[in-house]
């Protein structure tokens, strides 16, 4: 009770001083490379890296407790030219089972057309190939494939396709919540998200999460100096974009964020970090409790525990 009272007091003090968002904790994971996706379920975090060999499992305090091997072999990092580039992770309820869907970016066939389905209760894993699904994306307005985020919303899955300084479009792909089972026939639609009028920079959507209580889509967005879907570039600033009432907007042609949060402005520890993913640990009437994952392109990962006020 005392600890709970202290937390409430700190939240009140933060808001009353005009600071509506609060960075609560930063965790550096030196031994796990290239964090690209994070999900939260049953007081555990599941972290995937785009060139990592295993899925890392952490407890509620963000301490590593287990892992699930996906790609056997030597070396902590997979080679760039053949890595599956697993960029997104989302929790789904499929046939009465809680599962994780992990998806490759699709930016280099056949290596990056990979996906995994992992049972959260048993740990059983199933490898999936998304060749047919990715071949259909250009017919649905996706000029250059680079899937960076995913999440489940009521009745659908949302995938984010990140643009770059040459292909200046971030797009949300809306499809069925079991799309990998019927790749040749599943319904696919897309809509533009955000604007990038500044030709010197490009803000690319890098991760997605869904706040079910308020029907908000939370996106991580980062600036990176790259002109294609394959290469990394110099790291710039990172943001959160939040779209309200996303379920009613999934058939729109385009959406803009209702709330834009400059992470560098919240805390200087965000500077130089490429925020790749976000998960929601709790949602209250006024706040979203988030954990963000960052990749510094140097073989380690950083996690940020963040409190965001709803607006």
Give an account of the 3D structure.
- The protein is mostly beta strands and 311 residues long.
- 8% of the residues lie in helices and 48% in strands.
- It has a single domain, classed as Tachylectin-2, Chain A (5 Propeller), CATH 2.115.10.
- It is built from three helices and 21 strands.
- Strands 10-11-12-13-17 form a five-stranded mixed beta sheet, with no helix packed on it. Strands 1-21-20-19 form a four-stranded antiparallel beta sheet, with no helix packed on it.
List the helices and strands and how they pair.
Blueprint: H1 2-16, E1 21-29, E2 35-41, E3 44-49, E4 54-58, E5 64-69, E6 86-94, E7 97-104, E8 114-119, E9 125-129, H2 131-136, E10 147-153, E11 156-161, E12 171-175, E13 188-193, E14 203-211, E15 216-225, E16 234-243, E17 254-255, E18 259-262, H3 263-266, E19 274-283, E20 287-295, E21 301-309
Parallel strand pairs: 13-17
Antiparallel strand pairs: 1-21, 2-3, 3-4, 4-5, 6-7, 7-8, 8-9, 10-11, 11-12, 12-13, 14-15, 15-16, 16-18, 19-20, 20-21
């Amino acid at each position: 009770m005392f600890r709970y009272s202290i937390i409430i007091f700190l939240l009140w003090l933060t808001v009353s001083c005009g600071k509506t968002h609060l960075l609560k904790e930063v965790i550096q994971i030196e031994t796990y490379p290239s964090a690209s996706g994070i999900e939260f379920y049953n007081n555990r975090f599941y972290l995937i890296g785009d060139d990592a060999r295993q899925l890392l499992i952490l407890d509620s305090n963000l301490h590593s407790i287990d892992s699930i091997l996906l790609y056997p072999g030597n070396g902590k990092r997979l080679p760039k030219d053949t890595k599956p580039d697993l960029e997104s992770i989302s929790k789904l309820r499929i046939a009465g089972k809680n599962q994780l869907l992990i998806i490759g970016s699709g930016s280099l066939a056949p290596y990056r057309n990979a996906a995994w389905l992992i049972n959260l209760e048993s740990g059983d894993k199933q490898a999936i190939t998304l060749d047919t699904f990715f071949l259909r994306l250009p017919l649905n307005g996706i000029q250059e494939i680079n899937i960076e985020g995913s999440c489940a919303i009521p009745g659908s899955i949302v995938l984010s396709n990140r643009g770059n300084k040459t292909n200046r479009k971030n797009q949300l792909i809306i499809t069925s919540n079991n799309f990998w089972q019927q790749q040749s026939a599943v319904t696919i639609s897309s809509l533009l998200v955000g604007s990038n009028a500044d030709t010197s920079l490009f803000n690319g959507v890098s991760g997605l999460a869904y706040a079910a209580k308020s029907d908000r889509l939370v996106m991580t967005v980062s600036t990176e100096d790259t002109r294609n879907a394959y290469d990394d570039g110099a790291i710039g600033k990172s943001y959160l974009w939040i779209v309200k009432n996303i379920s009613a907007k999934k058939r729109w042609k385009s959406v803009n964020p209702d709330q834009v949060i400059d992470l560098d402005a919240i805390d200087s520890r965000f500077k130089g970090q490429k925020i790749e993913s976000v998960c929601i640990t709790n949602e209250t009437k006024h706040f979203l409790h988030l954990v963000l994952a960052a990749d510094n392109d140097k073989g380690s990962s950083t996690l940020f525990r963040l409190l965001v006020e709803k607006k």
